[in-house]
Design brief:
Keywords: ATP-binding, Hydrolase, Lipoprotein, Nucleotide-binding, Transport. It comes from Bythopirellula polymerisocia. By secondary structure, the protein is α/β, with parallel strands linked by helices. Helices cover about 30% and strands about 30% of the residues. A hairpin with a 2-residue loop joins strand 6 and strand 7. Bound molecules: adenosine-5'-diphosphate (ADP) (2 copies). One adenosine-5'-diphosphate binds next to helix 2.
Length: about 230
């Protein structure tokens, strides 16, 4: 099945003389287990698209389906978006944005507790995730004690905490060197394949594109599928 489906998403900012058509009839279907890269120059509409499917910045028109469920039709929401986001979506940003006075473990636990986990269940799940992402040995450290790549792994653990069916990442490797950047991209592919999540990564980073199943290019608000790599 599909993790994400969009139908002819259009976004217009402003009106009259200041009108900007940031996204035009954008259509993308992402299967469960598929990892997609969205490329394109600055100002081409990538953030507009990502925040539309992230249920943060609704489109002007068009429909968004998550896990087969119609969630948005233009700015009309068919569910409580905030609750839906917390339950089904995971976000990773350019910077890890960890809470500086909480340990790596606590940063992941809090995402679980906000969603109703007990402290005990949160601790077990958070530790399991840090181990899975290769930073279990840094669980007790504050973010300032971790490298950029380690911090980003903790941020990915936090995004995965509530078993989201969709992971959205905005330039997640921008602050990393190419080796660490590649590791984080490989992690997204692994997560998509192992957890059957649909993953969309907006990136300028052309060094690790081989890890993606599908590449899309956005230009002047229009999305085109660039290529399809058949997973073996
Ligand atoms: P990208 O993420 O590819 O850099 P964006 O989605 O941020 O592209 O922007 C696409 C276009 O929409 C750009 O022309 C940008 O200036 C415009 N835009 C983005 N956000 C706003 C906004 N809040 N108000 C007006 N114009 C915006
Ligand atoms: P919380 O109340 O815990 O921040 P939300 O449901 O408001 O949770 O948001 C869910 C996710 O969406 C969070 O990871 C948050 O960082 C992201 N998010 C919410 N609003 C915005 C926004 N305006 N821009 C970018 N990301 C956002």
């Amino acid at each position: 099945g599909f993790a994400i489906q969009t139908e002819i998403l259009t976004k217009v900012y402003g009106s009259g003389n200041t009108e900007v058509v940031a996204m035009q009839e954008a259509t993308m279907n992402v299967s469960r287990g598929e990892v997609v890269a969205l490329l394109g120059p600055s100002g081409s509409g990538k953030s507009t698209f990502l925040t539309a499917i992230g249920l943060i910045n609704p489109p002007t028109s068009g429909r968004v389906f998550i896990g087969g469920q119609l969630v948005l039709e233009g700015s009309r929401a068919y569910t409580n978006l905030r609750a839906f986001r917390r339950k089904h979506l995971g976000f990773v940003f350019q910077k890890a944005n960890l809470i500086p006075f909480l340990s790596a473990l606590e940063n992941v636990e809090i995402a679980l507790e906000i969603n109703g986990s007990s402290h005990r269940a949160a601790r077990i799940r958070a530790m399991e995730l840090l181990d899975y992402l290769g930073v279990g040995d840094r669980a007790e450290n504050l973010p300032s004690m971790l490298s950029g790549g380690q911090q980003q792994r903790v941020a990915v653990a936090r995004a995965l905490a509530n078993h989201p069916s969709v992971i959205l990442a905005d330039e997640p490797t921008a602050a990393l060197d190419s080796q660490r950047g590649r590791q984080v991209m490989e992690l997204f592919a692994q997560i998509a394949h192992e957890q059957s999540a649909g993953v969309v990564v907006v990136t300028h980073d052309h060094r690790a594109l081989d890890v993606f199943d599908t590449l899309y290019e956005m230009e002047d608000g229009v999305i085109r599928k660039q290529s399809e790599v058949v997973a073996s």
